[in-house]
Specification:
Helix content: 25-40%
Shape: globular
Strand order of the largest sheet: 6-7-8-9
Radius of gyration: 19 Å
Structural class: alpha/beta
Strand content: 5-15%
Number of helices: 10
């Protein structure tokens, strides 16, 4: 635990030193384009009462933009209506994820980790608590701190909504290790370089049958198809069945509980291979 904290703070400090020139240049350009201070803070958390922090971000949306709505689950993950309020340079920042760089300060202050669940806006959390109290409750049981990057941020399917995010974050909570975090940090670097960050405003759903899928069955177990590099997948479960780049895991019911009243998601599952995770094979990281 202490080692992870020291690593996160030390590595974040080193990254921040190298990021300072980028932040200065980006800040000047944004200040000219947006005609306002380029950095802002925003209160976020895992839930409304867990790991509440004020994160720092580069401002990428014009100040005169209309207030963003947060009344449905879709509002949380997809905001295409704001595209006209983002300048080309700000769009590039969002697609690379470099607008998140100021959050290195949050890591240095011990409020966040480099890797972890995505901290959400308070308005989003209020919506989740209202429309999906069962899933909100699951998120409230997470022990790991919010992260700048993470398994959902890298591999999640935004079009799948809340259930997909909680499923991947639950897997991370159960399987995280120091070396798993290193793998995700390295993969984050490739996402930044290729400008393939999953963004709520400029998100385009991949036309790929192997993308992440999440399916409920009648036993309340959760089936998740993971479209991830083999080096990432093997850190999630010890043994997987490999088939054309697709990995499907079944999360045991005692890992994941959904009340009998919760509406099941009905999707075609005939092409999925299900791997049941043995209780004895579960591992948790420090």
């Amino acid at each position: 635990m202490i080692f992870n904290k020291i690593f996160n703070i030390t590595f974040a400090f080193i990254l921040l030193v190298f990021a300072i020139p980028i932040l200065i240049i980006a800040g000047i350009i944004l200040a000219i384009e947006l005609k306002s201070w380029p950095v802002f803070e925003q209160e976020r958390g895992l839930t409304l009462d867990k790991y509440l922090i004020k994160i720092y971000k580069l401002k990428t949306i014009k100040p005169q933009s209309a207030k963003i709505t947060h009344t449905t689950e879709e509002d949380i993950f997809l905001k295409p209506g704001l595209r006209g309020n983002v300048t080309p340079f700000a769009q590039w920042l969002r697609k690379t994820g470099l607008d998140e760089l100021p959050q290195l300060l949050n890591v240095i202050m011990g409020q966040m980790n480099l890797i972890g669940p995505r901290p959400l806006m308070l308005e989003d959390l209020e919506t989740i608590k209202k429309v999906s109290p069962e899933l909100y409750s699951i998120r409230g049981k997470f022990k790991c701190k919010p992260g700048i990057s993470g398994i959902w941020q890298l591999f999640g399917n935004r079009a799948e909504g809340l259930i997909g995010m909680i499923a991947l974050e639950s897997l991370y909570e159960r399987t995280r290790t120091f070396f798993f975090d290193l793998k995700l940090i390295l993969y984050t670097t490739s996402v930044v370089i290729q400008a393939k960050n999953s963004d709520s405003i400029f998100y385009i759903e991949k036309q790929d049958q192997n993308r992440v899928k999440t399916i409920f069955d009648n036993s309340s177990n959760l089936k998740v198809t993971l479209n991830m590099p083999e080096g990432i997948s093997k850190f999630i479960i010890e043994k997987v069945v490999k088939s054309e780049g697709k990995y499907t895991v079944e999360i045991p019911q005692d890992w994941w509980y959904v009340s009998d009243s919760y509406e099941s998601v009905k999707k075609e599952t005939s092409d999925l291979k299900i791997l049941k995770i043995d209780k004895d094979s579960k591992k948790t990281g420090s």
